[in-house]
Design a protein that fits this description.
Distance between the termini of chain B: 41 Å
Order of helices and strands of chain B: EEEEEEEEEEEE
Largest sheet of chain A: 7 strands, mixed
Structural class of chain B: mainly beta
Largest interface: A-B, 25 and 23 residues
Shape of chain A: globular
Number of helices of chain A: 0
Largest sheet of chain B: 6 strands, mixed
Strand content of chain A: over 45%
Shape of chain B: globular
Helix content of chain B: under 10%
Structural class of chain A: mainly beta
Oligomer: heterodimer
Strand content of chain B: over 45%
Number of strands of chain A: 11
Distance between the termini of chain A: 37 Å
Order of helices and strands of chain A: EEEEEEEEEEE
Helix content of chain A: under 10%
Number of helices of chain B: 0
Chain lengths: 116, 113
């Protein structure tokens, strides 16, 4: 149980376009979802926390107008990278939890974004 | 400030040898503790977690971790490693009532024949 999927697994886009990444909890209801960014050979950097039906909470330094997060249902959250630039190229990972205190975060397989 | 420290950036172990990966935390109260493993180009897989109770926790793939309050540590161990254990290992912690995970910087494990 506790499976999280992400789509797409890889995406290549041109500079200036927008890219949407989906994160789905397949066998549980995720009241909270998290979006991380990971640079090569580094740890995960939390970008934002989203609770179903409310606005996402962004970490300091993360541009909310550039990284749009929507958590419309208990099983789906989306991250849209708007007007992508080469510096946005990275590995994006989502995680999901049921929101109860101490509940475990289960991670998706990640999405590799390359902006040309 | 809350933090998680993994002192070893890279560890090399022979196949079949034992393994211990170190993790120390700095929190006001004992946090919830986790170990995750990440293979190249993949997401994170949960190996085991400690919330309370028995301080020796058994996880998947033959891993175990021991919580030691006196040392603020949660070290990961495996008695005999396999080549497929080569990966990046992350220790993480979450405070009571806090949604966010704090990650260590990770330890890269290399297995040699």
């Amino acid at each position: 149980g506790a499976v999280v999927s992400q789509h797409p697994s890889r995406v290549i886009c041109k500079s200036g376009t927008s890219v949407k990444i989906e994160c789905r909890s397949l066998d549980f209801q995720a009241t909270t979802m998290f979006w991380y960014r990971q640079f090569p050979k580094q740890s995960l950097m939390l970008m934002a926390t989203s609770n179903e039906g409310s606005k996402a909470t962004y970490e300091q330094g993360v541009e909310k107008d550039k990284f749009l997060i929507n958590h419309a249902s208990l099983t789906l959250s989306t991250l849209t990278v708007t007007s992508a630039h080469p510096e946005d190229s990275s590995f994006y990972i989502c995680s999901a939890s049921s929101g109860a205190v101490g509940e475990t975060q289960y991670f998706g397989p990640g999405t590799r974004l390359l902006v040309l | 400030a809350q933090s998680v420290t993994q002192p070893d950036i890279h560890i090399t172990v022979s196949e079949g040898a034992s393994l211990e990966l170190r993790c120390n935390y700095s929190y006001g109260a004992t946090p919830y503790l986790f170990w995750y493993v990440q293979s190249p180009g993949q997401g994170l897989q949960l190996l085991l977690k400690y919330f309370s109770g028995d301080t020796l926790v058994q996880g998947i793939k033959g891993f175990e971790a021991e919580f030691k309050r006196s040392q603020s540590s949660y070290n990961l161990r495996k008695p005999s490693v396999h080549w497929s254990d080569a990966a990046e290992y992350f220790c993480a912690a979450k405070g009571f009532g806090n949604e966010k995970l704090t990650f260590g910087t990770g330890t890269r494990l290399t297995i040699i024949p």
